[in-house]
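ok so I'm stuck.
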Amino acid sequence: MPRWNTWLDPPPVLADRLGRGPDNVRLLRHVAAAMVVVGHSPGLAWQASGFDLLAVLLPGFYTGSVAVCVFFALSGCLLMHSWRRHSSWPRFALARVRRVYPAYLACLIFGVALGAAFTSLDLQAYVAAPELREHLWRNLDLAGLSYTLPGVFEHNRAPGVINGSLWSLALEVRLYVILVVLAAIGMLSRRRLLVAVVLAWMLWTMAGWWREAPGHQDSDALTALFFAGVVAAAFPERVWLSTRLLVVLGVVAFAAQGTVTAVPATMLGIGYAAFWLAWRVPPLPLPWRGDYSYGVFLYGFPVQQAIAALWPSLPSWGLSLVALPVALLLAAISWHALESRVLAVEQSPVSPKVPAR
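replied:
not stuck anymore, here's the structure
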């Protein structure tokens, strides 16, 4: 039985909890994936309804952007922890490819097939359209993304867009590449040098924020959050999972509202809250064993677009209510039919207990 009063006990350090028994990482990632879907609904449904509580509590953010911050903070930490346990950079890189790309490519094909069902073009014209080939080609490497398909969802609030969630995945994959490069040149094994380089980059980036405040989708701000997670995992014995510190960071974020530091302070608070929920709160069970969070993230947006096209009178809360079970079903199929099988072909010791994405 969880001891909830342990929240106010003397705080443990991250090294006591990271990779040492049950935690809430898998649960938190599923919640964050659901939050991405919920956060997109007001922008995709024609009948906006209700309000976003997190947008009220955290000005400049909304439910989906908070979830993205959680993903980036946890990913940086989990990947660095994985590297510290098994420092072979080729296997480290292969593990990332195997985790990200099979499910992503399946979702890319799913999006094209879904587009065929909703395009205003006839099937032959749709297949022959150069925009379709461009969409596939530009999205293969998750670098120069193409979000639209020819004639698809023309009358939706996000016309033509098949999967607007991919921007954050593309950024995260670029950060994976940077981490692999740092591993290959030996920097991840030299913790103090790593911290010095990360801090120097953060200070240089933050200098620009005094002139122009970053937004919640600012790539530099999310990169800083990711590498804050990396640094935390590099020195887990120095990272306290403190309830009092969480409250302090919340007060700082609240006090910073209306200033250029509001977004960075809020993102830092969200990242620390993710750590606190993942490794300080007593573990809570999920009703399933698989990791469906990545699939929910991948399939949520195209499912919402299809439902909005079929049911334009559906309010935003209804869109979330209908889309989440469908996305979860597709995610479960993806996990059991593809993702878990790919990961089981050659179980790599560099793969973290809970995949980063």
